[in-house]
Amino acid sequence: MSQAAAGAQAGAVAALELRGLQKSYVRGKPVLHAIDLSIAGTGLTAIIGPSGTGKSTLIRCVNRLVEPSGGQVLLDGEDLTALRGRSLRLARRRIGMVFQEYNLVERLTVIENLLCGRLGHVGALRAWLRRFPQVDVDRAFELLDAVGLADFAKTRADALSGGQRQRVGIARALMQEPRLLLADEPTSSLDPKTSVEVMELMRGLCAQRGIPVIVNMHDVELARRFASRIIGMSGGRVVFDGPATALTDDHLKQIYGGEGWLA
Amino acid sequence: MRGSHAVAELHDTALPGSGIRREWQRFTPGQRLARFAVYFFVVAAFVLSLGTVEVIPEFLWDAPAQMQDLLVRMWPPDYAHYPASVHDALVETLHIATLGTVLAVVLAVPLGLLAAHNVTPSHTVNTLAKLALVTSRSVNSLVWALLFIAVFGPGALAGTLAIAFRSIGFVGKLLGEALEEAQPGPIEALKASGTPWPSLLVFGYWPQVKPAFWALVLLRWDINVRESAVLGLVGAGGIGVALNTAMNLFQWDRVAVVLLAIFVVVIVAEVVVTWVRGRIL
Amino acid sequence: MSEAVRGSPRRAFEPDWLARIGWLAALLYVVYAASLLDFTWARFVTGLEQAARFFDRMFPPDFSRWEAVLKGLKESLEIAVLASVGGIVLSLPIGFLAARNLMPAWVNWPARALIAACRTFHPVIVAIIFVKAVGFGALAGILALVIASVGFIAKLFAEAIEEISLKQVEAVRATGASFMNVIVFGVLPQVAARFIGFSTYQFDSNVRNSTMVGIVGAGGIGAPLFVAFQRFDYDVVCAILIAIVAVVFLCEILSNQVKRVFGDAMRDAREPRGG
Asked: Which of B201, B203, B210 sits opposite A116 (nearest CB)?
């Protein structure tokens, strides 16, 4: 881990590389125009941009929840766009994902939701009988401690608040021991205070584990505060890419258009 | 629907006759016409049926007297007949209903999974599965019973299979609909973590459809208790056989006991279902 | 709590003994009941052989007696139509009387008991009783299906009324409207669409059952079907079944159309009172 982190800091290893990634839902109307990106092996990258500009599509193209129309997605050098069936499933195990609406299985307990993150590794019958390996169960409890929900292990997910659910969502994604974490608007359904707590938690846990994070965000201030790198998108193209400190009001105008909204 | 209704009204009063832009309004005069067509059709069907059906009205006037005669013959019920030959038939009926329901569920679950378009993303497979379910439902359980009697001979086996095959369509259709109503979010999350499809069913879909599943199984069992009581009339086992025998021999006091037994069992089944549903849902 | 269990391996799931016992009991029951009803593999195998012969004799279907089939189907449809109309007409008042939010207990209890009584017996058993009361023929079938229709439509109608918003009823009542006006303006508009839904559903159900009551002599296609079965004329059986399925399908399409027309038309019906 420390080696990977060191390598990433040197900028030598790219965890994820997008090459000419394209997507159009309707023929001739591309949502993503040939995106080229390289994500380092550590740090939090925020993607900002107006609604409907393809942020969500971009992030879903990485783990192929959305099928790209063209280009390549390289995870540790392996092209994910070429994968089918089982090999795609095995690749997805290496990518964790956190959702805006949490997407927990509401009628299962918190601990069961965490163990859902291991379903790619455990056979269906063992999962059905709740015979998860003790290693997984131990890790689940560790993660629950880490996200501060140790007392909620056997609570049903539908009894949790929004912030608590998103913590479970993060813990579930980390159960996969992913090589990369994707987060699609993870704070958009949360209040400002909880948003900061959730972002803090996500950045902290992933930094500890040396997992690079890509986050779609609405909130520019939150992105500035937590991201080491910001990617601004507009009209399906990358229009800004640089460290958070380099993001100026001019850039924001370019990303969101207009200026009346800038205080 | 409420919203569009309000818009409809507004639009109707404000711009009469300019219905080209809104699709629903274009049909409004047509809908009126269709409504009158239905009224006309219903009345015509009723009058036509009333005119041509072969009913001897005198029989209807005679009915109260006949009914009274029937009740007198039935009273008092021959309770001694119950332990002698009704009890075992009643238990057999319950076994037919229960085993038939279990078998139906076992067969209906795969069909329900194949019929739900979000579980099985193939239009062809969905349609085929739905066709199988429709076939199961459109054949009456008595006809299923006759078919299985022709194959397996008279008895409880034919009855159980008849109940099962009639129920597959019911359970499969409702299960498929429950699956299609499952929230896509958690499913997407599990897919994103590389979950294979059997685990997706177990952890993604099953928790979401579980309450609906048990509710519809209970409902079907309740229906099956009633249905299995008549299968014996065509020889497919259960209490219907006792009913048929007593009727053919004009032993109306025994018929009364059989009907009473069915009545009690149906009521008890309904109470049990209500109680269990209250506990598990 | 988390401190207390730390150290020893933590368990994610308490073993669910109740569920395990439940599944085991279910399994044991299936084995027991199957052996009780004498389900054996041998019977199954001989059955399969029999099935092959059976299907062989079913095809090709024999439509040579199509006139009798048509006559039976016509009678079945007549039974279904008359029973549906009768059932619907009776269900309206009975359903109202059984609604607990509109009627005092001394009215709704007898009405609910009547509905429960109508629901208890399968239509075919009710048909038996009516065959004894009014003789063989379509009348017994009609009466049996009227009972079944009341049991279904009135029950669901009463439940639909019990779910209505009482605010609208109060609003109408507040204008000093008479009881009938409260029903017509406050209650009916809220439940009319569902009533039509239940009625069309029951019509479908009546069509299916009207093809069966003939088995006990209550008219319709059921009698020729049963006779053909008893005579082992399986090609005739096949022809009749095809005809029945076709009619059932047609009626289902028809009632879906009716449901669609009225589902949308409910809007129109409310319109004059809407403003």
From this structure: B203
Domain count, chain B: 2
* Burial category of C184 from C-beta neighbours within 10 Å (exposed 0-12, middle 13-18, buried 19 and up): middle
Report the Cα–Cα distance between both ends of chain A, in Å, rounded. Answer: 42
**Could you tell me the CATH number of the domain that includes residue B99?**
1.10.3720.10
Best mutation site among B47, B58, B217, B230 for testing chain C: the one with the most C CBs within 10 Å?
A: B230
C271 touching B (Cβ < 8 Å): yes
pTM of the model: 0.83
Minimal CA separation from C188 to chain B, in Å: 17
Question: Which 8-state DSSP code applies to residue B82?
Answer: I
Tokens of A252: 């924001």
Chain A residues in contact with B186 by the CB 8 A cut-off are 103-106
Query: Considering only CA atoms, which of B48, B62, B59 is closest in space to residue C139?
Result: B59
Q: How far apart are CA B27 and CA B4, in angstroms?
A: 14
Residue A184 CA to its chain's centroid (Å): 6
Q: Is position B116 within any domain?
A: yes
Helices vs strands, H then E, count in chain A: 10, 10
Does any CB of chain B come closer than 8 Å to the CB of residue C34? yes
Which among B185, B194, B199 has the least Cβ separation from residue A90? B194
Interface size between A and C, measured as CB pairs under 8 A? 26
Range of the domain at B198: 78-280
Question: CB under 8 Å to B156, separation ≥6 — which residues?
Answer: B92, B95, B96, B236, B237, B238, C37, C38
Question: Distance between CA A38 and CA A25 in Å, rounded?
Answer: 24
Chain A residues close to B202, C-beta within 8 Å: 124, 127-128
Cβ atoms within 10 Å of A89's Cβ, excluding its own: 17
Give me the mean pLDDT over the A152-161 stretch.
Answer: 91
Please enumerate in sequence order all residues whose Cβ is within 8 A of that of C153, keeping only pairs 6 or more positions apart, or say none. C87, C88, C91, C95, C195, C198, C199, C202
In a domain, B72, yes or no: no
φ, ψ for residue A223, nearest 5 deg: -65, -45
Fold of C65-274: MetI-like fold (1.10.3720)
**Greater model confidence, C24 or A7:** C24
- Evaluate whether residue A216 is within a structural domain: yes
Q: What is the C-alpha to C-alpha distance for residues B161 and C43, in angstroms, rounded to an integer?
A: 13
In 3D space, the residue among B243, B142, B144 whose CA is nearest the CA of residue C131 turns out to be: B243
- Which alpha helices (DSSP H) does chain A contain, by range? 2-9, 55-62, 85-92, 110-115, 124-128, 134-146, 162-175, 192-209, 220-226, 249-256
Q: Is residue B155 part of a domain?
A: yes
Torsion angle (degrees, nearest 10) of CA C72, C74, C75, C81: 150
Listed by start position, the domains of chain C span 2-57, 65-274
pLDDT tens profile B30-79: 777 888 888 888 888 888 888 887 777 777 777 788 888 888 888 888 88
Neighbours of chain C (3+ CB pairs under 8 A): A, B
Residue from the list B188, B196, B210 with its beta carbon closest to the beta carbon of A65: B188
Count residue pairs from A and B with Cβ separation < 8 A. Answer: 86
- The pLDDT tens digits of the residues spanning B187-202 come to 999 999 999 999 999 9
